[in-house]
């Protein structure tokens, strides 16, 4: 018969391992300081008539958090009066503020379909990005249609949406 002698240090080490396994060990403090990021998805949609610029929406970053935008996807349709211009450009803008400095990030959806029967065009685009916004600041999402129709737009109506994906992190 063999006998095992356990030293006091060995017994303490085994006891701590058992406490860790059953979740009763005292915290080291490191895990408590690591807060998980909160996933965030935003969706905005607007419809407008006879406009060149349009607002899609705003988002106020909560206190104590920083917004990190990782992906934006846009989809929209414009109905035209008369002939459709060939050189129109649709641009969406995401405006953020970091350390008191504002910046604008652009997304330019591409034409994916032209419907000559209804004189309309459909646009789609997406962009992977790392865009930040500080706590208590407002993120603004806007759009603009540039065309060769003189002053203002010749778009009869438009409908656009944007989806934004990212997360909130502790600041």
Question: Quick recap of the structure?
Answer:
The protein is mainly beta. It is elongated. It has helices at 8-22, 30-33; strands spanning 38-49, 53-60, 65-80, 89-98, 101-107, 110-115, 120-133, 138-146, 155-170.
Structural domains: how many: 1
The structural class is mainly beta
Give me the side-by-side strand order of the main sheet: 1-9-3-7-6
CATH class: Mainly Beta
Indicate the CATH architecture. Answer: Sandwich
Q: State the separation between the terminal residues, measured CA to CA.
A: 61 Å
Q: Gyration radius, to the nearest Å? A: 27 Å
**Low-confidence stretches at least 5 residues in length (pLDDT < 50)?**
none
Structural overview:
The protein has 171 residues and is mainly beta. It has one domain (35-170): Jelly Rolls. It is 11% helix and 57% strand. It is built from 2 helices and 9 strands; from the N terminus they run ααβββββββββ. A 5-stranded antiparallel sheet has the order 1-9-3-7-6, with no helix packed on it. A 4-stranded antiparallel sheet has the order 2-8-4-5, with no helix packed on it. Strand 4 (89-98) and strand 5 (101-107) form a beta hairpin. The mean pLDDT is 80.
List the helices and strands and how they pair.
Elements: H1 8-22, H2 30-33, E1 38-49, E2 53-60, E3 65-80, E4 89-98, E5 101-107, E6 110-115, E7 120-133, E8 138-146, E9 155-170
Antiparallel strand pairs: 1-9, 2-8, 3-7, 3-9, 4-5, 4-8, 6-7
